[in-house]
């Protein structure tokens, strides 16, 4: 390039055309030089014995890497042809990462001499092209973990990689196009412990394909097209994932052999019945959610004494008879949400003694019973989206450990503070939240709640209370008393209330309050400084905010939502000044407007100024003159009266 420029400068037989040409050439060569920097490999980052060379557009490993490198990361480059040269003749590697390249050819027996290579990641390449040539990559003597995911491999192609891999423990074939697992697929890799075949199109598994793997403990067949499993006999398997297949039935082999299965995921299939699980099992985690199971019947009197977690949500269960729980003495989590259960009852104290979470949400549940001394460990109960109108009014008092109670979207009413037989002829018509010793969060939104009596939460240490979406809720002014030191979150959104009767400043721990979408015209006067940090008053009918309220809030308030209220501009100058001085954050400030008589449209509160609210000077002058005239007249009248009475006194004195 330099030589070319020199030549050009010789030619400078100064004509303007030549000068222009020269400038043009200079420009072109500059652009060219910046687009193609000198061919020096960009440096990899080398840390001790690890070389990080990802994302460098490399076609092979740089030649200048130190010999001692044991980990080579060449992921996300442009390697196409994997040979000894590509790896710069490094043979001491322990870990080689070639994820996301364009490899379509591997030099046969390339890995044979790599006696230390334990981890080989070939995921996201084009190894289907290589396998198509029916070439074998040769022995993988030391490799323990091999990732062949996302390579477009189809049935039989894995054979060219696995035929001689005696130490292989972990194998991933995820996201390929395998339709069948043949009997001898893994016959060259008998040490396998974990196989992932997630996201293929497996329809068929030949008998014995996995049986020969005596160390296999983890098998992931999720997201395939398997329709049925007839004779499950992998008794050493600990984790089995069959989620997202098309299974209609699952049968275990008839045997008394103890199975080691701990985690079994059968979610998102088409099961019509409870699976036929091994008789001698110690299963801990069973996910049957999103199937079509209509009733729970364990074929062959199987027990699940180790079962801790059972998810049967999104099925078509109509009943959940309590006797089935006698086979699940260790159950801690039960999810039967989104089924067709109308009634749920536990009366025997021996059942579900360890259960902590019960999720019965989104059922057409009409009746719920917990007898004396049942479910004593229960901490979370999800009952939202049911048809509950009546409950035994003391039902929650019997749950000594209940912390979270989700009752939204039902039809419940709250009892007066002291239900007695007199004022509650029918105690079933309401439910009490008095003295529930550990209850922290109560969700009662969308219940058509009509009233909240005084002291309804006495002796219940609530932190979170959601009363929103109960239009027309009539709240006693003392309904929240008892919560002075505990309540932190309060939501009363969309309750169609025009007056807030409770004095929220008495709730010393209250930090988050949502009063949006109501009909509030004013905020109550608060007796103390409040500790509220976030207050939502959006979409109400507020015209003025009392200065005393602002003062009560000012110390703690950090965030205020105020949009969609018919505020008066001049009636709220102190508040507006506070906003303009950024004392609080108003996330919806763009929608906060106020009404001013001189403007036909609402004015953004950011635009309001003091002078907008002082009338024009001429008017002031006239008022001053009128006031002065009035004063003069009053003084004159008083003076006249005064003189008159003195003269009368004189007259009297004269007479006397
Ligand atoms: C890969 O490289 C080897 C050795 O350089 C060469 O013989 C072979 O033809 C190349 N293969 C492909 C598919 O490019
Ligand atoms: C195999 O997978 C398991 C579980 O993911 C992991 O703990 C283990 O380290 C892996 N072994 C190798 C050699 O990669
Ligand atoms: C089973 O596989 C699915 C899909 O990959 C995954 O979402 C789920 O978490 C797995 N289940 C278990 C128990 O690991
Ligand atoms: C299950 O056990 C009961 C008695 O506990 C017995 O009557 C019934 O026949 C058994 N069912 C099966 C399928 O073994
Ligand atoms: C069922 O409930 C359990 C425990 O609460 C939860 O972890 C799981 O995600 C729920 N299942 C579904 C499908 O939502
Ligand atoms: C209860 O079930 C519902 C619906 O399946 C789910 O959204 C919710 O997360 C579950 N609760 C818990 C704590 O998992
Ligand atoms: C809301 O309250 C107003 C009167 O304050 C009433 O006219 C209206 O019907 C109520 N709306 C609902 C949904 O209860």
UniProtKB/TrEMBL annotation:
TM annotation in the entry: 621-640
Keyword Acyltransferase: no
InterPro entries: Leu-rich_rpt, Leu-rich_rpt_typical-subtyp, LRR_dom_sf
Entries under SUPFAM superfamilies matching the protein: L domain-like (SSF52058)
Key word Metal-binding present: no
Span of the signal peptide: 1-35
Keywords: Leucine-rich repeat, Membrane, Repeat, Signal, Transmembrane, Transmembrane helix
Name assigned to this protein: Leucine rich repeat containing 32
Organism annotation: Oreochromis aureus
Taxonomic path: Eukaryota, Metazoa, Chordata, Craniata, Vertebrata
Protein encoded by which gene: LRRC32
